[in-house]
């Protein structure tokens, strides 16, 4: 049976705030049709209660004798609507006055104002989607690049959920195998099946690990891949930032120590958003403010996925020293690109020398002139390949949400305990307890297992009208 979890009927403006060509006001709940009927007269003379689901009528919003607007009204009947409840969408002219008047009329006729994310929350509570899909609705709306959009759509369409369903069913198989063992435990039987159990546990562990591993890429795609531009003062970092983002974002000057703070800007390269972080140049200085800036440069390395170490090719020796001493220890698992700048100032012999001296670093290298925009397009290409993004159309699931990441990490610890338990031959009921825990954490992601607090946390971050 279809269960209505919410008694009240809610309304909100679902289009962006401000003036637009049109605006859409969404109404959802048991009484959506009755309430809207009180303020709407369709030109065809029919009441909304007579209007079929998935149809639109034209008419007027009226307040007594006053015509507020001419509108289109779409009707969706439970359970075939976004929220699973009766829904009405009023498309009105985009005047803020009209929008507010319609909201006021709806509220005075018995609707309540929707809370942030309440439409999507109802869709979840009514079983129209699971929790990870509901969260993806917000990501789809927020997506700003082709790659972020693709991941959000993948999640909203339930591909991640399906993966979790498969994992859960494997875990349930596991539980039944263990329970079979428990049933016979009195009878002192050798269990050949333990090998099978181990295989299954390992397979589940690999799958969960693959999902958790995808988070760093997924998160970077969602928020823009952070690329720190680091180097000595005057290396041409700010010039490079300006070239990469295509506008004069940072001040460029021949004076050392011009950039003293972090400057960030984002750019779409091949449908992926990169977030470039220009930093204060590294040098020995007694200037307190500049030193604070240099500290921030080091911190930027820690936050980045890719580090561009920009080298003034005329001064590459001192740059090598800084690189060795201050940067390499911080780069560790990050991708490092050595960017030799100002190649317009060096001849080919000197270039040869430079190449030799950096030959032993485990890093991609590129030679550019930021000022003359030589090889800068190649640098963009290089960045894209260094980022090692999953190919468009690849079926692997990439997770982007920190809540999912944390739950998967917990699930992973639980399955590792299962594996260790099997290795140590511990009793089946302890193993099965860890399996249950693993199931619990996976269930947290899809919302099979959830609390009001979790739901409140998730949906309060949505906008009103979603
Ligand atoms: N000749 C030449 N000069 C450059 C190049 N890139 C930057 N510069 C100059 O080097 C100086 C320092 O540049 P800036 O971008 O402020 O360096 P930052 O301190 O690393 O941010 C400025 O005078 C730039 O015009 C380049 O590729 N070739
Ligand atoms: Mg600078």
Structure write-up:
This protein has 466 residues and is of the alpha/beta class. It folds into three domains: 10-129, Gyrase A, domain 2; 138-214 and 398-447, Up-down Bundle (Four Helix Bundle (Hemerythrin (Met), subunit A)); 223-386, P-loop containing nucleotide triphosphate hydrolases (Rossmann fold, 3-Layer(aba) Sandwich), CATH 3.40.50. Helices cover 47% and strands 18% of the residues. It has helices at residues 32-39, 96-108, 118-125, 131-142, 146-156, 159-183, 193-213, 215-223, 237-245, 288-303, 316-331, 348-357, 376-386, 402-423, 428-446, 452-459; strands spanning 10-13, 22-28, 40-42, 55-63, 66-76, 87-93, 112-113, 225-231, 263-269, 272-278, 306-312, 335-341, 364-367. It has a seven-stranded mixed beta sheet with strand order 3-4-5-6-2-1-7, with helices on one face. The protein has a six-stranded mixed beta sheet with strand order 9-10-8-11-12-13, sandwiched between helices. It is flat, with a radius of gyration of 29 Å. The mean pLDDT is 92. Bound molecules: guanosine-5'-diphosphate and magnesium ion. Magnesium ion binds next to α9.
Short description:
The protein has 466 residues and is of the alpha/beta class.
- In helices, the fraction of residues equals 40-55%
Number of helices: 16
Structural class: alpha/beta
Number of spatially distinct domains:
3
Q: Order of helices and strands, N to C?
A: EEHEEEEHEHHHHHHEHEEHEHEHEHHHH
Shape: flat
Second rung of CATH, namely the architecture of the largest domain = 3-Layer(aba) Sandwich
> Into which percentage range does the β-strand content fall?
15-25%
Distance between the termini: 26 Å
What name is given to the CATH topology of the largest domain?
Answer: Rossmann fold
């Amino acid at each position: 049976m279809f269960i209505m979890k919410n008694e009240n009927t809610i309304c909100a403006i679902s289009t962006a705030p401000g003036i637009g060509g049109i605006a859409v006001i969404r109404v959802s709940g048991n009484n959506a049709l009755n309430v809207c009927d009180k303020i709407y007269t369709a030109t065809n003379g029919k009441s909304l209660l007579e209007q079929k689901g998935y149809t639109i009528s034209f008419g007027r919003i009226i307040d007594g004798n006053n015509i507020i607007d001419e509108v289109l009204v779409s009707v969706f009947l439970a359970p075939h609507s976004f929220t699973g409840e009766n829904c009405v969408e009023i498309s009105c002219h985009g005047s803020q006055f009209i929008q507010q008047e319609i909201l006021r009329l709806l509220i005075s006729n018995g609707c309540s104002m929707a809370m942030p994310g309440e439409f999507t929350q109802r869709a979840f509570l009514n079983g129209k989607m699971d929790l990870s899909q509901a969260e993806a609705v917000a990501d789809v709306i927020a997506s700003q690049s082709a790659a972020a959009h693709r991941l959000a759509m993948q999640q909203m369409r339930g591909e991640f959920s399906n993966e979790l369903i498969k994992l859960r069913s494997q875990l349930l198989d596991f539980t039944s195998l263990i329970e079979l063992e428990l049933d016979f435990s009195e009878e002192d039987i050798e269990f050949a099946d333990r090998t099978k159990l181990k295989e299954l546990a390992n397979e589940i562990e690999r799958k969960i690990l693959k999902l958790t591993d995808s988070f760093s890429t997924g998160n970077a795609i969602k928020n823009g891949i952070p690329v720190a531009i680091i180097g000595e003062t005057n290396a041409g970092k700010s010039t490079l930032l300006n070239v990469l983002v295509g506008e004069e974002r940072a001040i460029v000057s021949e004076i050392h120590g011009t950039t003293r703070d972090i400057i960030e800007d984002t750019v779409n390269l091949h449908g992926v958003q990169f977030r470039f972080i220009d930093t204060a140049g590294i040098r020995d200085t007694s200037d307190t403010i500049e030193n604070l800036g240099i500290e921030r440069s080091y911190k930027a390395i820690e936050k980045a996925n890719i580090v561009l170490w920009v080298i003034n090719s005329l001064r590459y020796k001192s740059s090598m020293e800084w690189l060795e001493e201050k940067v390499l220890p911080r780069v560790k698992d990050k991708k490092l690109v050595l960017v030799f700048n100002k190649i317009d100032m060096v001849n080919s012999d000197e270039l040869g020398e430079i190449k030799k001296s950096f030959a032993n670093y485990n890093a991609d290298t590129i030679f550019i002139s930021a000022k003359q925009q030589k090889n800068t397009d190649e640098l963009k290409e290089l960045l894209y390949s260094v980022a090692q993004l999953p190919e468009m159309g690849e079926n692997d699931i990439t997770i982007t949400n920190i809540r999912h990441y944390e739950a998967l990490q917990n699930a992973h610890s639980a399955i590792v305990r299962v594996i260790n338990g099997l290795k140590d031959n511990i009793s089946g009921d302890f193993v099965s307890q860890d399996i249950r825990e693993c199931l619990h954490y996976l269930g947290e992601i899809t919302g099979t297992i959830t609390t009001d607090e979790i739901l409140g946390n998730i949906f309060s971050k949505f906008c009103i009208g979603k």
